Amino acid sequence: MTERLSAALTEIADETPGVRLPDDLWEQGRRRRRTRWWQRLAAALAALLTALFVLPGLGAPQFADTGVRLPSSVAEPYLWQRTVDGAPDRPVLIWFPTQHSLNFETAQVYVGRDGSYRIDYMFSGEDPGSLSPDGRYFLGPALTDLTSGRQVALPTPHSVLWSWSDDSRHAVAVIDHDEGVIAYNAANEQINDPERPAEIVVADVPSGKVRSIGLVDAEFRSVAALSPDGTRVALVEGRYDKPQTLTVRDTATGAVLRAFTITAAQRLGGPAAWTPDGSRILLAAAERCDWLRMCDQPWHLQYADPATGRITDEPARGRSGDPTVVGWRDGRPVAALSGTRCVLTSLDPTGEHALPVAIPVRYGCPEIPRALLAEAEFGGPPVSPSFWAAQWWFYPLLAGAAAIGLLVIRRIARRISRRAVRRRSTPGEPPVTDA
């Protein structure tokens, strides 16, 4: 550079005003970095929430509408599992009760054919209800369409026992109006009747319309069984401390078509007690003591013929467990045997054959739609709930926890960075070493 050029540049520099730096320049930079960090955090949380609402349908095994295979096992739901108002878009594959719920009470778990889990919380003392043979409806205090979540309230007490026709278009219930205690109003007048007879009602599905076909003297725990075509209902009438009768009634008029006198050692087999052709009704006959004593005893099946009024015994003897006939498969009844755990068993003429499905039920028996019990294959893949199929409050809770975690990590990182800056700015100090 020549002396002349150097002098010119020096003159220009002297005439140029100095750069004015604000006093809080460093603080402005820190604020800008914090703003950018918060923007990145908000974008990350928005992406997380978007993913959480997309992922619930992922990760669950898929089942086709045809050729359904029942799972070899099902797992318990998560505490935050989505409720039944977000119902699966296909009929239910299996239903089972659980106490793995937020309110520590028994809840109902619906597993859809798409592998999705839904949970329904119950009121204390509420009867769970019954699943339709096609797996589409659940009938209890309300009629619920499990493919859409639509509910129709029923004008009935909560203690009901439902049984279905094979086409899932009709259901029958025995409604117990006995509250167990005598109630009085403010004027000390009795307002209920503990001895009031039970009522037989027939529900039309899917409209939910209920009509009464008569009153019966029956314990509310007795089981009603609707014939496959829905035209007849079998019911044990009479209180436990009185003589009992197995009656067959017309569901259109309530008229008694046949009556069988039974003992305390005989009871109706279950909600699917009618044979598939509707010609006979299954009874469970205790061999050691009557069913009222709740003793661990052997039993066998009996067949009641409504046409002739005869009751005949099966050849097998000494069956074990507490049976409830819930369906038919290959011409043989399928019973849920309750005890230390519930087992679904095909009752062969010479013995029993447990069906290969494992369900973690400790507070009741599972229910598989009757149509699937009859036709579906067993041995399908195990089914587990999706972690992300949660109730709405779970997503912001998880996002908040993630934000707090990121803030903690950022604060720790800033402290480490400040310590490193201090060490570099004081080179004369000896390095810090561990003792």
Q: SSE layout and pairings?
A:
Layout: H1 3-15, H2 25-54, E1 69-71, E2 92-98, E3 107-112, E4 117-121, E5 130-131, E6 137-139, E7 142-145, E8 151-153, E9 160-164, E10 170-175, E11 198-204, E12 209-216, E13 224-226, E14 232-237, E15 244-250, E16 256-262, E17 266-268, E18 281-286, E19 299-304, E20 311-313, E21 322-329, E22 332-338, E23 343-348, E24 351-354, H3 370-375, E25 377-380, H4 394-425
Parallel strand pairs: 1-25
Antiparallel strand pairs: 2-3, 3-4, 5-6, 6-7, 7-8, 9-10, 10-11, 11-12, 13-14, 14-15, 15-16, 17-18, 18-19, 19-20, 21-22, 22-23, 23-24
Helix pairs in contact: 2-4
Tell me what the structure shows.
This protein has 435 residues and is an alpha+beta fold. Helix content is 19%, strand content 30%. The protein contains 4 helices and 25 strands. The protein has helices at residues 3-15, 25-54, 370-375, 394-425, and strands at 69-71, 92-98, 107-112, 117-121, 130-131, 137-139, 142-145, 151-153, 160-164, 170-175, 198-204, 209-216, 224-226, 232-237, 244-250, 256-262, 266-268, 281-286, 299-304, 311-313, 322-329, 332-338, 343-348, 351-354, 377-380. The strands form 7 sheets. A 4-stranded antiparallel sheet has the order 5-6-7-8, with no helix packed on it. It has a 4-stranded antiparallel sheet with strand order 9-10-11-12, with no helix packed on it. α2 runs antiparallel to α4. The longest helix is centred in the last third of the chain and has 32 residues, at 394-425.
